[in-house]
Amino acid sequence: MQKLKDFMQDRYGPDQLSLALVILGCIITAALSFFRVPYYRLLGLLPMALALFRVLSKQREKRYAENVRFLQVWNPLREKAVALWNRVRDRDHRYYNCPTCKKRLRVPRGRGKIEITCPHCGSKFKRNTGGPRK
Q1: How confident is the model at residue 133, as a pLDDT?
Q2: Taking the complete model, does pTM exceed 0.85, yes or no?
Q3: Please, which contacts does 123-130 make with residues 24 or more away whose CB atoms are closer than 8 Å?
């Protein structure tokens, strides 16, 4: 165990980008396993090899900068996906965009045709939220 600790002493180690590369490699390998062409599955090893290179790298500043750039792209995409998933699962509300300021507004479902006032810009518009619930 001490030999492993000594080996990893000045290495960068795992981060979010390395984990994403391993997951991408697994997905590619699984997707390409359906094709009968030899050596296609080896393409999935490329992202995994890159992840291993990043984990064992001694250039900590470069790997950290790469991870920061990855997170600058990944986090907004993840937040949008989570917000969309939460809106799809929300059965009690309807979501509309304000025609003036384009902000997303949440209104209760099942109130019929109502006038919505945007709390951001104050504009008013009418939308149908569905009939009353039974």
Answers
A1: 55
A2: no
A3: 123/98, 123/99, 125/98, 125/99, 127/94, 127/96, 129/94, 130/94
